[in-house]
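Query structure, 147 tokens:
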């Protein structure tokens, strides 16, 4: 995959467990497609601030964190980019959290421990969706200019 107009696909990964965040990030980096950039946060407040200031295409976040929970982070990301692709990771799921995740358009909901290949595959799928949206938007703009 090549980024549209040389614009990278920005993926934010939020995990408050430092060891887990480092492990997942380290293993993901070598498995991500060309044009995908991963930024990892272990502080959900810092992630929330970033999501309010920067364009993010994909967010992968832990559900239960002490400062800002994962569902709130997804909502925050959607304020800036309504089409953000979201994946929730959790060690302890509840039916209420699962329903809430579906209500806000979370694409995938994984139970920990996560399989790195699965997460990498979900990032690749999300990046492909982002890429298709970008190409469609550019094609629509080009059509309007031509008429």
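Result returned for the query:
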């Amino acid at each position: 995959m090549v980024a549209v107009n040389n614009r990278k696909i920005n993926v934010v990964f939020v995990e408050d467990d430092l060891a887990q965040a480092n492990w997942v990030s380290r293993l993901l980096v070598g498995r991500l497609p060309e044009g995908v950039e991963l930024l990892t946060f272990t502080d959900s407040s810092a992630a929330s601030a970033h999501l309010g200031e920067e364009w993010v295409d994909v967010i992968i976040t832990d559900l239960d964190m002490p400062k800002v929970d994962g569902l709130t982070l997804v909502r925050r990301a959607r304020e800036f980019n309504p089409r953000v692709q979201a994946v929730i990771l959790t060690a302890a799921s509840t039916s209420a959290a699962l329903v809430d995740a579906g209500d806000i358009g979370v694409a995938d909901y994984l139970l920990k421990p996560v399989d790195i290949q699965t997460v990498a595959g979900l990032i690749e799928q999300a990046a492909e969706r982002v890429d298709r949206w970008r190409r469609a938007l550019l094609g629509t703009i080009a059509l309007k200019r031509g008429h």
